[in-house]
Amino acid sequence: MGSVALAGLAGCSALRSESHPDVELLVDNVLNYHLEPHTVRVSVVDGDGEEVFRRSVVVDAGTAEEPSYANISESTIGPGHYRLHVWRDEGERADGRTLHTRDHDATGCLDCFVMIGRTTDETVTALSIWYTTNCGELSHADGTPGTAG
Question: Pairing with 73, which of 25, 32, 105, 132 sits 20 to 30 Å away (CA)?
Fold first, then answer.
């Protein structure tokens, strides 16, 4: 099946926190740099454990030079505290990636997109979540700044 990049973030049972403000969440696109098409599944769970968003999208095969993309959503969810789960193909949610909004310094919005593969190698099948906070700089879901690639 291929590897999954981005070390998973630790889970927790309670997402509400006074020290972390509520944010709006947008999960807009999936980019595929891999040479094969994939089905990407997205689930957003709120701080009470209720699923508030679920969608599956098919993204065509892409290349390092010309990734394909598919739209996931054009509207925000929020405000609140959320866990974003993404996984692909016939895998289980536990095999995918998770992003907790409370683990990031967002004040107002967290705009996420999903990436399959690498911009430098279209044979890589790694799955990752990227995001912007406050409509700012692109960051990897483990908190390290950078650009997709």
Answer: 105
CATH of the domain at 60: 2.60.40
Encoded amino acid at 20, one letter: H
Structural domains counted in the chain: 1
Domain membership of residue 43 (yes or no) is yes
**Residue 3 located in a structural domain:** no
Residues 6+ apart with CB under 8 A from 22: 78, 79, 80, 81
Q: Full-prediction pTM beyond 0.90? A: no
pLDDT single digits (tens) 9-38: 233 223 334 566 778 888 888 999 999 999
DSSP string covering 90-141, please?
A: T--GGGSEEEEGGGS--SSEEEEEEEESBTTBTT---EEEEEEETT--EEET
Distance CA 66, CA 31 (A): 10
- 53, 77 contact by CB (below 8 A): yes
